[in-house]
Design goal:
The longest helix has 12 residues. A 5-stranded antiparallel beta sheet has the order 4-3-2-1-5. It has a single domain, classed as Roll (SH3 type barrels), CATH 2.30.30. The relative contact order is 0.27. The chain is 16% helix and 46% strand. It is globular, with a radius of gyration of 12 Å. A hairpin with a 7-residue loop joins strand 1 and strand 2. With 76 residues, the chain is an alpha+beta fold.
């Protein structure tokens, strides 16, 4: 069983629109027991795996990240 907490539908829709429009976002997220990350990214896909949802992003150095949606604290 997972401890994933589904995010608000409105926030999910914002991520979908950012993917469609290839919009860069500044995301803030924190994994358990890790330092908070704040980076500019371009969302490329929403992925569901093992009953959890993830945002696949590319950062400014072309590195790919897979971020669990409920770990994202804010986006702009």
């Amino acid at each position: 069983m997972t401890d994933y907490i589904a995010i608000d539908c409105g926030q999910h829709s914002e991520f979908e629109l950012a993917i469609m429009h290839k919009k860069w976002l500044t995301l803030s997220w924190q994994l358990p027991d890790e330092v908070k990350q704040v980076i500019k990214v371009k969302p490329v896909d929403l992925i569901t795996k093992d009953h959890e949802e993830f945002l696949e992003v590319i950062d400014e150095t072309n590195e790919t990240h897979l971020i669990r949606l409920d770990y994202i604290e804010c986006s702009s």
